[in-house]
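Project standup — Tuesday

K.O.: blocked on the structure for the chain from last sprint. Re-posting the sequence here as requested.
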Amino acid sequence: MTQPPCEFIPPPECPVFEPSLEEFSDPFAYINKIRPIAEKTGICKIRPPQEWQPPFACDVDRLKFTPRIQRLNELEAQTRVKLNFLDQIAKFWELQGSTLKIPHVERKILDLYQLNKLVNDEGGFEIVCRDRHWSKISVKMGFSPGKAIGSHLRAHYERILYPYNMFQTGTNLSVLRMAVAEIKEEPEDPTDIDKAVLNTINKPTNKVSFDLFYFTNLRGNKHVSALQVDHYMCLVCGQGNAEDRLLLCDGCDDSYHTFCLLPPLQDVPKGDWRCPKCLAQECGKPQAAFGFEQASRSYTLQAFGDMADSFKSDYFNMPVHMVPTELVEKEFWRLVSTIEEDVTVEYGADIASKEFGSGFPVKNGHFQVSPEDEQYLSSGWNLNNMPVLDASVLTHITADICGMKLPWLYVGMCFSSFCWHIEDHWSYSINYLHWGEPKTWYGVPCYAAEHLESVMRKLAPELFECQPDLLHQLVTIMNPNTLMNHGVPVFRTNQCAGEFVITFPRAYHSGFNQGFNFAEAVNFCTMDWMPIGRSCIEHYRDLRRYCVFSHDEMVCNMALKAPTLDVNLAAVLTKEVQDMLQEEEELRKKVTKLGVVRSQQVDFELLPDEERQCDRCLTTCFLSGLACDCRPKKMVCLYHFHELCQCPTDKLSLHYKFTLEELYPIVASVKHRAESYENWLRDVTEILEKKEGLEELHSLVELAETGAFPDANLQEQLKIIASEADKVAVMAQQLLNGKRQTSQNELTVEELRSFVRQLDALPCNIRQAPLLRDLLTRVEDFEERSARLLSDESPSPSDLQDLLDLSLGLDVELPQRPVLRERLEQARWLEAVAQHSSQPEALCLDTMRRLIDQGVGLAPHGSVEKAMARLQELLTVSEQWEERALGLMENRPFQSIEALDEALQEVDNIPAFLPNCLELKDTVERARSWVQEAEALQLGGRIPVLETLSELLQRADSIPVKLEPLGRLEALVSDVQAWKESAAKTFLLRNSRFSLLEVLCPRCDVGPGLLRSKSKKGKEMSQTSRRSPSRLDSVCDVEKALSESKDSASMATLVEVHCKEMELLLALRTSNESRFSTADDGNALSVCVCQKPPSGEMVRCELCRDLFHGDCVQLERSELEYGEAWFCPFCQRSRKPPLDKVLPLLASLQRIRVRLPEGDALRFLIERTVKWQHKVQQACSDGLLERLGKVRKTWIIHNMMFDCQMLTANTYSSFQVNWVQCDGSCNQWFHQVCVGLSSERAESEDYVCISCTQPDYERVTIGATSHNFRSFPQQTPVYFTVICLLPFFVSFFLPHNQLLLTLFS
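H.V.: unblocked you, prediction finished:
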């Protein structure tokens, strides 16, 4: 029966490491750190820090692979041996014409392999039968004793295995050869010969009968018919008789009697039958090497995952994530150990990452890396970077080797496994599980590698006979429990997603996948691997296994970079290159002794691998090789120089990469690099012992940094020594230079003393040491002087400052220094208090508060406390008086001058500067001065000026004192304001732009200039204020002159302004009249308020003689009576009240007894009016009006003719004006407005011009008109002008004015 496998017992766990983020930053440093622990178990697991989460960068859309097919029961070595044995048995009986049916014993399949092995172990079938050990064998096979199982096992062995074993041992063939040889002796009696052969063949060796009921015939009878007997003879007996027992071989057509065979056959086989000779040829063929088949289909990652998950869930009948890892592990080892169940899985192994992309992000890859994941591009734990890091010797291999320098990808499913193996060249390997279900690992440490190999060879020798390098094929697994039972240490671990598993050199490892997952693996080699790698090459040479790369080539590449190598690596490499050189010297000597004289330098690295592999051991040649002309593409290493060919030595040629002379300096450079560290150590020791200078110490530190020496602790200590020496030197120099440091870095005096004492203990010399001793002497002198000065009750601030200044040059922490600062602050404060107290006028409240605040911050001292008390008392009194003085000024009602004087008498005794009290004194003085000025205004019957009163009242607002005359003056000013309002109502037009003074006062400017903007007016006012007082160009000037002048002088000022007004008016009239008379083109003139050419109905101002459009001044012609005077907006400045309404205003102003410019202007205006009336009355009495009536018509005609002559010169030819034609003899046209006609009169009456009524007038010019005026007495024109123009300037109604206007019209 097949013995049921024992329940699997998990091996112990391998170590698990969880590095910190700092430890994780350097992969090889951390691996080297854990190596003493981890290499004892062969494998270990590393859990990265939580922060290390690389993105999955594989191109899953392009990833398509063909997996390997794995039949689980073919993986295990012992199970495969059983299956191979059963295949051989089945083939044997198939060639015998029967099909093997494995019998059952006690309802269980009989383990034929175990039965055969146990029988052979007992000495064979005959011995077991003789010693009756079948019961013992049945017990060993697991059957219960006492059930006669042994007889059943004997029968099964005798019928199935015994013929096969006889065939395997060749017994049947040897008997056949003996029989044939006896026949060839040609005996005399054929009958005797037949009897002899039959006796030999049929001689029973044991009383055993063969019953072939277990075999089923495959074909029809193969006995020879009677017709064919004469043609076929039995090769054993040489007879053709017993034709029904004569068999014909289907392979070679030889014939045999069934009873002549060994063992004899009872019946003729019904299927194909092979004779013993053919059977030996068929079964003697070697078995094909075992390997995994490739699946018939390719998978995408998604399709493989679906298949894998479906398989696992169906197999365990539960969701994949709920299957325990322990259950999967036990089931896996059960399946690989049984032959009854055949489970097949698929494994996507050894997928090249170069083709589909690594699971880690790489530079210039298709995967877009986010900024926060860029760190993983250069991470040492990125499997694309690890093999080529500086600490990995694989970086010195120029070729990109898939699986070693370039990662391989692995896509697993449940039960897919990787068999027992070690890495190529016995290198390290690292495996990272990107995602998916766990991967179960088993590892054996390197020291047990040979033990594992021997156990597997012992337990499955048949496999190694067929495949000596079986363990290098990754196709064989063996139960860890079996290995452990034979003394092999095995350790296990479950690798979860995001974890690393590292295998160490020559550490056998195997395992299987718990389910669908994705992993990535690569090799790396550290310096400790170097001797192991060379041993591996020797092992490969013995096994005749090819090398993945040339170890010597890698060593030479490293040696050529010796100056930049790590010192530790150089030390390891020194031994390597020396051994390599010694080995090469010996081999070349042997070749030379052989007689090989031809040589050729070859760049082996440029040759294809198949051309530089040793033809015997498959080792990759690099330093040298032997070639022959007979086989130019073949080469052998110098170890197998005698196995190349049989040609004479002169046909052989030594190919070499370097001459021995070239190798010597290479080895020397490596040795120099390795010894540089030792030389550095020696120099460090000498310098420290001899106490050299600081510069020599720094040179050693720099040499350590540039040389990258390994002893980091010693380098760190040396740096610390140099750093401390630098600090001491810098500190000493600062102390000597007087540069202060921070208080945390200052040395105390005791530390300085200790510092000076310890200078000699430094491992190097400091050149500032003698000067530091001098510094210590000066510090001690300072301590003595400070002790004397601090003992004084009232030290001088200058002495304290001098001593502190001296301490500033001592860059040492001096305990006297803060005390001296305190005493200096106290002394300065007392000095400041005394200085301010001696100057009471400068001792204000803020100063006292500041001094008190400063005193509060001072250290306690008797003198300070006394001064503080005096200051506090003075401050309290001063604050009380300041508050009282402020209250006297702000409280209502105001205090009298006498009460304030009485309060101020007490302030004079306070020795301090009190602003409120001083302000109160100033207020009282101002109040006295104001009262005196107010009383002086009305002394001697003087009439005050309004401006003076207003100024006094304004000043009174800022004096917070009770002023007796204030009420009287305010009433006076109020009366003046009421008078001005009454006068304004009397004279000013509604919404007038003129002030009362402008209306009452003679005008300083005449014409359109009155409409200037307010801004310009403001500018003129400011400019006027800067003019000379004698100029009266504006109302402001006049107002200022009237305010500043006396009563009599004000009239002179107004007379001057009046004369100027008359001059300006006459000039304006003349200018306007001449402007119209001399203009050639009316369109070029600008008239009216709109400053546009004349057009339409025009009206002329009687005062300024300017023309205005009727529409612009909004004047209806019907509103103006014939002969009535009309004034333009520039000349009509005010109302014209009757004189009897104006005289009461002047009388009321005289009762107020206050002078103001408006009052002077009103009085001057009334005086002018009275004088004008007097002149008019005188003119009437002198007959002047009658003479004016005679020349009226002539003057007016002259004036009209002048105007019309101007107009007939086409000046106003385009105007839209009303014309009138003379009804006389001239028929000339005239403007109605120019000849003084209204439209109604022109329609109803005839008009005859003056030229027709007075023929001699045609050539009369304006000169003639002037002559007519000159016909009056000399004073007549001016007198006439004054009389005529004066009413236009009077601001109230005059009866004589209307009389004159009627006369002129």
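K.O.: great, moving the ticket to review. The radius of gyration is 70 Å. The mean pLDDT is 75.
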